[in-house]
Amino acid sequence: MSARLTTSPRRGLLALTTTVAVGALVLAGCTSNEAPQAEGTAASSAPAAVSDNDDDGDTVVIGFSAPAADHGWMGAITSAAKAEAEKYPDVELRVAEGTNDVSLQISQIETFINDKVDAIVLLPFDGAALTEVATQAMDAGITVINVDREFSSPFAARTTVLGDNYGMGVSAGTYICEELGGNADAVVAEIAGIDSLPLTQDRSQGFSDALSDCGLTVSNRVAADFTIQGGETATANLLQAAPKIDAIWNHDDDQGVGVLAAIDSAGRDEFFMVGGAGSANVMESIKAGDSVLQATVVYPSTQAADGIKLARLIVQGKSMSDLGSLGVPRQVQLYAPVVTQENVDLYLPSAFQS
Amino acid sequence: MVNVDPMPDHRPLLQMQGIVKQFPGARALDGVDLEILPGEVHCLLGQNGAGKSTLIKILAGAHQPDEGQILLDGAPVVITHPVAALTLGVATMYQELDVVDGLTVTENIFLGHELATAGFSQRRAATRRTRELLARLGHPDISPHKEVGRLSAAGKQIVSMARALSYDARIIIMDEPSAVLDSEEVANLFRVVRELARDGVAVVYISHRLDEIRQIGDRITVLKDGRAVAQNLDVAQTPTPDLIRLMTGRSVDQVFPDRLPVAPEAEVLLRVTGLGLKGTFHDVSFEVRAGEVLGLAGLVGSGRSEILETVYGARTATSGTVEVAGRRTRRGSVKSAVDSGVGLCPEERKSQGLLLDEPIYRNITLSAFARFASAGFLDESAERRAAQQQVEALDIRPHDVDRTVRTLSGGNQQKAVLSRWLVHGCRVLLLDEPTRGVDVGARAEIYSLIRALAAAGTAVVVVSSEIDEVLGMSDRVLVISEGQVVFTSPAESIDEHQVLALVMEGSAA
Amino acid sequence: MSSQHVSAKPSPAGAGPQGAPTATRPRRTLLRGSSGRSIGLVLALVVLCVVGYVTGGERFASVDNLMTILRLAAALGVLSIGMTFVITGGGIDLSVGSVMGLATVWATTVATQTMAQDFHWIVMVLVALAVGTACGLINGVLIAYGKVVAFIATLAMMVGARGLAEMIANRQTQPVKVRAFLDFFRAEVLGIPALVWMFVLVAVAGWVLLNRTTFGRRTIAVGGNPEAARLAGVNVKRHTMYLYGLAGLAAGIAGVMMLVRTTAGSSTTGQLYELDAIAAVVVGGTLLVGGRGTIGGTVLGVLIFTTLTNVFTLNNMSISAQSVAKGVIIVVAVLLQQRFAARGRAT
Q1: Residue pLDDT, tens place only, C215-240
Q2: Which among A262, B267, B330, B425 is placed 20 to 30 Å from C252, CA to CA?
Q3: Is the CATH number of domain A165-298 3.40.50.2300?
Q4: How far apart are CA A99 and CA A69, in angstroms?
């Protein structure tokens, strides 16, 4: 845990004034939680110019907290965030040890509040559980960027960066529709992750919606548990259940290692497979074209890195240069692109190691 | 039967008439009468197995009598379960203190009859009542809120007594209450008992210590083999030798096999020197020769079983040595003892001796199965044959080595444990209560088996609570009291009365 | 010391020969004992197979599917056989799943795989087995000599081994790069996958060990009544330690099998396998309190669970429905066991 967080005197003073200001507002009887107030003044001081966003500005201290890196994607979240922060000399990133313990993560955020950081980029283990402490941070004048798992209150974050689970399903389904080219009898199988998670349900819903758009349905569906062994077991049984398959979508490239092992072991290759999340070895396999793996749908592991960038812009009072409107948007939902042999080189650098 | 007239000026509070209790294989009570007067301390005397505990369990509602009736204030009552006994005013303090360590004094006292209104406990009232009870028992110093686990044994006993009183008991049964107390605490116990008696509470007092009975008792009933052999004796007018004679008077014919003379030059197979186990027994020394049967006599808790287990290595001695045929065994190592030829038939046959759900043959070969194996692979048919031989030789019924041991009678189970050491072969055999729970017929078989083993050159050590058994089986007897050998003698030159006097008087405070 | 048969009186039949009474015995033991109790399990498996055939037809009743079921059952089966010994010996081991995961990770580290490339793929196998056995022995020492309750000691190992695996793997997947390792274990002998052969071998070895050796007899004695075993001269502590070592070894073997199946080591491997193994053992008829164990029952228990998953997948049914069915099977099996136990006692 990064318990030892130092604060520069200058920052402390600034945060103090903000706190005092907020406190005064509360005393005055105003309803608090006016989220955008922090950059209200800043926006006027730095009107959006086309591309000076990367220029050095005031130093921004950003606290970062995410769940334990217990799988490749989550590991990549933190390392991408760190790498992004390194690019900016005016960003000072304080990274709390990844944890799946909600109360520990809450205390990490409390520490950030006490240390009066400028911004917090938070990928909560549980969005609802972290909402209250995030709201406190906002009340203390700290810009909170919510990543991936949404808070339950709009006042808990200035901006939210989300992946698109439903969109992943749509992308995968649309790609499979195109590839199968109107074969209405095609057998499409789906290997989901942990069924009880909303993200799995969203992905499956998107997949099924996209398939039905071209008159297909999911013929066989199994759920694994995001682990290699789970993927292997589910797939081995799936392949027995469906003697002939045309396409498979596997939700998660981590469990995909097991999925491919089972396919390999069964000696099946009459179908093509689409992955999910976008790990580096899956992309390399797509590039090499040596397996049934033909494409994967990206669930960006650069979300937190985007969060760092946006936090810096907001604190420095800048806007997104490619948008005409002033101010960073309240919510950014990232696209879930399909990576195939044609465009794999574009995505390989940002892929995560599973 | 000795009968002394009850004191004529009192109507009996409680009468038990012709109580019979039959257990599978044994008649525990065979028409016992008991009469308790209000405000008296009535002592119940008898050897182990005489039926004392069965009698008080019937009184406490834990057992139902097969025949006979119980009168309370002259009216017949049926005590169907322990709570019924309590509501009738009969409370029992068992030998194993039945308090719950994790609860407070108050909670223990009102356990099962909590003071409560509509499910909410009236803690203040309970605390007040507890204070009153403790004060009455002469212990206002005990806090009602103290956790019972942190009290001394005497303190726990007070709590137990307070619980009995909390039911407004008119009769309190105390089963060996002084066993866990030191002399000062015993004095306080007596004071409390006297005060209870003065308040009109009748106390049924069970103890082995005759000196205590003399101090506290009013009248005595002596039980022997499930019968009351003497009733309502006046404590002050009955001499100790009479009591001992009443307790030991022979009833069941037990034919002990003839002793064979042990050759003085026979090899000393077991030599125990200065053996001690801290807090249990100390400085125990004895020798057993080939062909000799040595008996250890003593009360429960005297340390006799512990001595056997320590010799066997099942407990680690804190001092002294054990030599088998001149070779010293390793302290606290059963394997070392077994390897040098020692075998033990433990006191608790079921919990210490047998694999109850396994077949007979596996129990018989439990110590020796490795011998029926080559390179670790068992030859079960050889095992079965060896077991079959024992089953037939010892007449273990049924003669079916595949039968589960659980289904056997006590005597046959004991023979199975014994035969284990015959298959293994041993030069020193330690027997702890070899006839407990064994019927009379099987006893005789076990006696002759032990004698036959001795004749074949085995050194045998026997522990038994039944003094006549120890005397009848052994060549030589060691009397153990409070962890010490207090007397050694050839078995012929000491009788049951002397042994009983030794173990009882020897333990006088 | 040679056995010294004292033919003590009182029965005159004492010196009788030992021929006659043995003749009737073998038949009776067949009907009694574990095989008799397993009839219910065989029945359950048959019912499951009939359901599979009716609903899945050729897809279920193919050799290919049979081999898939056996292959999937193999790792859990080996794990459960190790667990059978521990439970029969009166213990419990919650750590086998984690230890299995640790074994897969340790066997696929860069260092191990480099060594395997340089010398022989057997290095990976040996590493996995050594890691498993070592963890098991640590459990055993803690439980037998440290007097830590088995539940707690193995719970600690379960958490600790998982953590160590995560540290070593850095929570990343470690693909098996030693081709020869995969080639060897993914081969088929007589049309049967190597994994299935391993399962069969371990099951047969386990059966022999439990039923035909002194080791097995000690296990039953220690589990049935540790005090009686101790007083009969069995070294209960040492044997207890061996039992956990054996469970660890089984976890190591299962780890190798899992590597073969998934082609990668991962710190997530073996999650919740300890519970599946305990369930299979108990459903199989081994008493949770110890003293009676059946390898055949355990194998049947594993096969029932694996076939269940297969049949459910063939019918495209959800994981949740499978879990419900699994729960029902566990409860019904244990209830039946108690009925049998009560009846056995009554006779």
Answers
A1: 999 999 999 999 999 998 899 999 99
A2: A262
A3: yes
A4: 8
